[in-house]
Design a protein that fits this description.
Layout: H1 36-39, H2 42-45, H3 50-69, H4 83-105, H5 108-124, H6 146-163, H7 169-187, H8 192-195, H9 200-215, H10 219-227, H11 237-243, H12 255-275, H13 284-298, E1 300-301, E2 304-305, H14 320-333, H15 336-345, H16 352-362, E3 374-377, E4 386-391, E5 400-405, E6 419-424, E7 427-430, H17 451-457, E8 467-468, E9 486-491, E10 496-504, E11 511-519, E12 528-548, E13 552-556, E14 561-562, E15 579-585, E16 593-598, E17 601-607, E18 613-619, E19 632-653, E20 655-657, E21 662-664, E22 670-678, E23 681-688, E24 693-699, E25 707-712, E26 715-720, E27 723-728
Antiparallel strand pairs: 1-2, 3-4, 4-5, 5-6, 6-7, 8-12, 9-10, 10-11, 11-12, 12-19, 13-16, 14-15, 15-18, 16-17, 17-19, 18-19, 20-21, 22-23, 23-24, 24-27, 25-26
Length: 740
């Protein structure tokens, strides 16, 4: 676990801040995105601070290799992952790096390289039309989608700004007009539907155009970037800050896209702060940009982002977006917890801000980042549900349960209201598929989203939440998915951490309420997870509750009817067509358990759902091009019910040591698992093999001030709020009674 750029302005105490932006003649070429005085000579200090020295060496090696290879500005031809696509990506990174190196080292070779590359673009760019490999996204000029053109502009304008004052007036006028003004025009007035969207594609466009406006001394471009094309404030960067982030800094499209969108937000904010400090951009909306940096970090396990919505599971804090964000965030706040993140990343950025991070790390100022149980609200006003993060600790292998009770997440959202995932022992245990995509691997549809992203990854059955009549929430139409969950209860402290949320409207006439409780147990290495999902449907329906997990099945407590000679598919549409059925079974009252092993730890999944059929299988059916990962699942199925309660318990236990060839604790510590209803209270009893028991009571009344009580044998137990937990000794009476 993590131990607990952009080169703008003078971030060291001794540096002089930049003046406020003001329109100046076009041939006034002094940098406005970088403080040349602050950057000058930083190379001489690099060896004193290992993290900065390493970044200087890395950038120099990369740019020197690009210079040795020579200028290559090809006519665009390929989609993501293709040769021309990758070359233009390498070019903007080399241009950006050359600008940094010139400012840090003063070496004129980097100016010449940047100039020659940009003059080559000045010849190419004016003649480009829509990209020939454009698909369903808005076409770019250099790339198959305009988003990538915006990213090119964000990086390119920074590199250009760093060398612009070293060019002749004729060169920078050519580059100004034929490259950057043309790009900014194409991405703004030439792409109004993208530029004025409330979406991460627009964020990148706004940032690139606004920063270009500062460099070209064009206030009109800056104002359009900040307030939208008509400058009314109904679109643009400021409106995106209003609508895309919650008051907690949670980003509408989920943690993965928060990572991606964070870079243009923090970089453009830093540009605004350097050029128009009177806007106090880092204080806007109660400091939402800085909150977003911390929230991004909180939305990780061992540094990897929770893979909700269209996410790739291998994305971590070791990414360019977060190197920049940590450096900029630290320069503004001097929060020593951010230093521990930089230490875990092992990288910083080649800017005064990056030097400050490296300097203070070397001085031993880092403190652990405060990873904690936290509710991250969703929606501009924080009223659209949220992500409930329940942490058993801050260590790399400590358990983290995450309940996804958020809004849709726009077009990148999945139909998975009240979904959950679990990490334990350093591994993903209850999993989310994320996106069906091989990012920038040309052989897989050019690195684009695959057809299975729609037919499987977004569908409700691909997630750990309720499916009604084999359909997906909102009919799998994201534009119709306007209803949001209500987060009814959150408690991140004590031996019964919990989240309770409710969703109405995902299916017509159906209301779903889900309580997830993280139960710490004395002597256990990890907590148990109690899952109580109650559905009110109004008419008879088929209810399926999937659990997607990582591991190898070891045993079941009930008999299986296995499919040995054929492998049937669970259904015909809405994701079911991608699910192979390997076995089914009908558990009795006391044998509803499935056990698997993952990374040397056992996991027993128990159900106390009367009449349920258990379906065991694997994803990947009807996938002729092998686009899907093969991953196991368990489905609890109830047929013909109107209302129902799915009651489940996940217990981590034991250890298998492959090197010593020893197994301990492979048998569950749970002897029995039962559920009953007492008035408006669900009473779940876990009987331990020791003879003791634990009772968890979940009330429908979620008012934290309201008192409840249960008669358990001869004793009356009372509690406030929706959840009560009672540990009864071996000699305790049988439970029974009533609530009031």
């Amino acid at each position: 676990m993590i131990a607990r750029t952009f080169f703008l302005g003078a971030s060291l105490a001794a540096l002089t801040p930049l003046p406020a932006f003001a329109a100046t003649p076009a041939d006034d070429a002094h940098p406005v995105l970088t403080d040349s005085a602050a950057l000058s000579g930083l190379g001489a200090q690099a060896e004193r601070y290992p993290l900065f020295a390493a970044e200087l060496a890395r950038v120099r090696k990369s740019v020197d290799a690009a210079m040795k290879a020579g200028i290559d500005v090809p006519v665009p031809r390929d989609p993501g992952g293709g040769a021309t696509h990758e070359q233009h990506k390498r070019n903007y990174m080399a241009l950006y790096g050359a600008g940094l190196l010139y400012r840090v080292t003063g070496d004129r070779r980097y100016v010449d390289y940047a100039r020659d590359m940009l003059l080559a673009y000045a010849k190419l760019y004016p003649g480009l039309g829509p990209h020939p490999a454009a698909a369903n996204e808005a076409a770019g000029r250099l790339f198959w989608q305009s988003l990538n053109d915006s990213v090119w502009l964000v990086y390119g304008i920074q590199g250009y700004d760093a060398v612009r004052d070293a060019l002749t007036p004729q060169d920078h006028r050519t580059i100004d007009e034929q490259v950057f003004r043309r790009m900014a025009t194409f991405l703004s007035t030439g792409s109004p539907k993208v530029f004025d969207r409330i979406h991460n594609h627009a964020t990148w466009a706004n940032a690139g155009v606004g920063m270009t406006g500062y460099v070209l001394r064009d206030q009109d471009l800056v104002d359009k970037a900040l307030k939208g094309l008509d400058k009314s404030g109904k679109a643009g960067f400021l409106r995106q800050l209003d609508l895309l982030f919650s008051p907690d800094g949670y980003y509408a499209e989920g943690p993965y896209y928060q990572r991606y969108a964070l870079q243009p937000f923090v970089i453009f904010a830093a540009a605004i702060d350097a050029n128009e400090p009177q806007r106090r951009i880092f204080e806007y909306r109660d400091g939402v940009v800085l909150k977003a940096i911390r929230t991004s970090i909180q939305s990780t396990y061992d540094g990897y982002f929770f893979p909700f919505n269209d996410a790739m599971p291998d994305k971590s804090l070791k990414t360019e977006e977060l190197y920049q964000a940590v450096a900029i965030g630290y320069a503004k706040t001097h929060d020593p917890a951010l230093l521990s993140i930089a230490q875990w990343q092992g990288r910083t950025v080649l800017t005064p801000k990056g030097l400050e991070v490296a300097r203070d790390l070397a001085a031993g100022k880092a403190k652990p980042f405060p990873f904690a149980s936290v509710l991250l609200r969703d929606g501009p006003d924080g009223n659209d549900g949220g992500i409930a993060v329940l942490r058993d600790g801050a260590g790399a292998k400590d358990q983290v349960l995450v309940a996804k009770n958020t809004a849709q997440g726009m077009g990148h959202g999945h139909f998975d209201r009240l979904n959950w995932i679990l990490y334990d022992n350093g591994q993903a245990i209850v999993t989310d598929y994320g996106a069906a995509r091989f990012l920038n691997i040309e052989a897989k549809d050019g690195g684009r989203y695959l057809p299975e992203n729609e037919s499987w990854a977004k569908q409700t059955v691909a997630h750990n939440t309720l499916v009604v009549d084999e359909g997906s929430q909102f009919g799998a139409d994201w534009k119709s998915a306007t209803a949001t969950p209500r987060q009814l209860w959150f408690n991140g402290e004590g031996p019964a951490k919990a989240s309770i949320a409710e969703m109405a409207g995902a299916y017509p006439g159906v209301t779903i309420r889900r309580a997830l409780v993280q139960l710490s147990v004395e002597g256990a290495k990890s907590p148990l997870v109690l899952d109580l999902l109650r559905v009110k449907g109004g008419k008879a329906a088929r209810y399926d509750l999937p659990l997607h997990y990582a591991g190898h099945l070891i045993d079941t407590g009930f008999a299986l009817k296995s499919n040995l000679t054929a492998r049937p598919v669970l259904g015909k549409a809405n994701g079911y067509q991608h699910m192979w059925v390997d076995a089914t079974g009908t558990p009795g009252a006391d044998d509803g358990v499935v056990t698997w092993i993952e990374d040397g730890r056992f996991y027993s999944y128990r159900v106390a759902t009367p009449g349920v059929t258990m379906i065991l299988g694997e994803s990947g059916a009807n996938d002729p091009r092998f686009n899907l990962r093969r991953e196991p699942f368990i489905v609890q199925r109830l047929d013909g019910a109107r209302d129902a309660a799915f009651v489940s318990l996940l217990e981590p236990h034991g250890r298998y040591d492959a090197s010593a060839e020893t197994t301990t604790g492979s048998e569950s510590a749970v002897r029995s698992f039962t559920h009953r209803r007492e008035g408006d209270v669900d009473v779940v009893t876990i009987g331990w093999r020791s003879g003791a028991s634990t009772v968890v009571a979940v009330s429908e009344d979620t008012d934290p001030a309201h008192a409840h009580s249960l008669v358990l044998g001869e004793a009356t137990q009372s509690w406030k709020g929706p959840i009560g937990r009672f540990d009864l000794p071996k000699t305790g009476p049988k439970t029974g009674g009533k609530s009031k």
